[in-house]
TrEMBL record:
Catalytic activity annotation: hydrogencarbonate + H(+) = CO2 + H2O
Keyword RNA-binding among UniProt keywords: no
Organism name: Sphaerotilus natans subsp. natans DSM 6575
Record protein name field: Carbonic anhydrase
GO MF annotation terms: carbonate dehydratase activity; zinc ion binding
Cofactor or coenzyme needed: Zn(2+)
Source superkingdom: Bacteria
Binding site for Zn(2+): C43, D45, H99, C102
Alphabetical UniProt keywords: Lyase, Metal-binding, Zinc
Cofactor binding note from Swiss-Prot or TrEMBL: Binds 1 zinc ion per subunit.
């Protein structure tokens, strides 16, 4: 057994050579600057590789990933990424991306004990508890998918509420927040339509997206559950 992971270095050399052949001067151009238009905030899950699934090259996507794509105001790491992306790189779009069958969301939903990550997933449990009445109407399998989407809406709203995004809007900088979900089963992204480009849109966009989400999961009971 190789302990040096030679295969990965070999693949890397091949990738670098192929990239340079396809686009001569690719790396020397990137060396000078990166000008991504998008910040991707996604799950750390290995099946959801940000660049690959939107077919973007190095330099085109700024990425932050953690378990269950959570953004909380106490996370210096995530906030630093958002701050650098918005203030220095001046990305136009910040996209929170959840994915179907998310292990983190599933663990949070079912109170599974995994380890240190349990503490992190308390943030997703807060989302679960907030929407408990709605989730209780669904089958266990549908609950996972619903909580994945609810979590995207909550985390996208959390991004909107950071002082970083508030300040950018305040000074007239164009920053649009989005919430998407990725289907592990078909490789497709879906827009949950919480799209926010100014402070006064946060709550209406959130409420509209939440109502649409509930409509998808329990069409007949939307009117009753809208207030959950
Ligand atoms: Zn996940």
């Amino acid at each position: 057994m190789s302990t040096e992971l030679n295969e990965l270095f070999e693949r890397n050399r091949q990738w670098a050579a192929d990239t340079e052949t396809r686009e001569p001067g690719f790396f020397s151009r990137l060396l000078k600057q990166q000008t991504p238009q998008y910040l991707w905030i996604g799950c750390a899950d290995s099946r959801v590789p940000a660049n690959e699934l939107v077919d973007l090259l190095p330099g085109e996507l700024f990425v932050h990933r953690n378990i269950a794509n959570v953004i909380v105001p106490s996370d210096l790491n995530a906030l630093s990424v958002i701050q650098y992306a918005v203030d220095a790189l001046r990305v136009t779009h910040v996209i929170v991306v959840g994915h179907s069958n998310c292990g983190g969301v599933k663990a949070a939903l079912n109170n599974l004990r995994v380890g240190l990550v349990d503490i992190w997933l308390r943030h997703v449990q807060d989302v679960r508890n907030q929407h408990r009445a709605f989730l209780d109407r669904l089958t266990p399998e549908r609950q996972v998918d619903a909580l994945v989407e609810l979590n995207v809406l909550e985390q996208a709203r959390n991004v909107c509420r950071t002082t970083i995004v508030e300040d950018a809007w305040q000074r007239g900088q164009e920053v649009v927040i989005h919430g998407w979900v990725y289907g592990l089963h078909n490789g497709l992204l879906e827009d949950l339509r919480i799209t926010v480009s100014k402070p006064q849109d946060i709550e209406p966009a959130y409420e509209r997206a939440l109502a649409a989400l509930k409509q998808r999961f329990v069409p007949a009971e939307t009117a009753e559950t809208a207030a959950d």
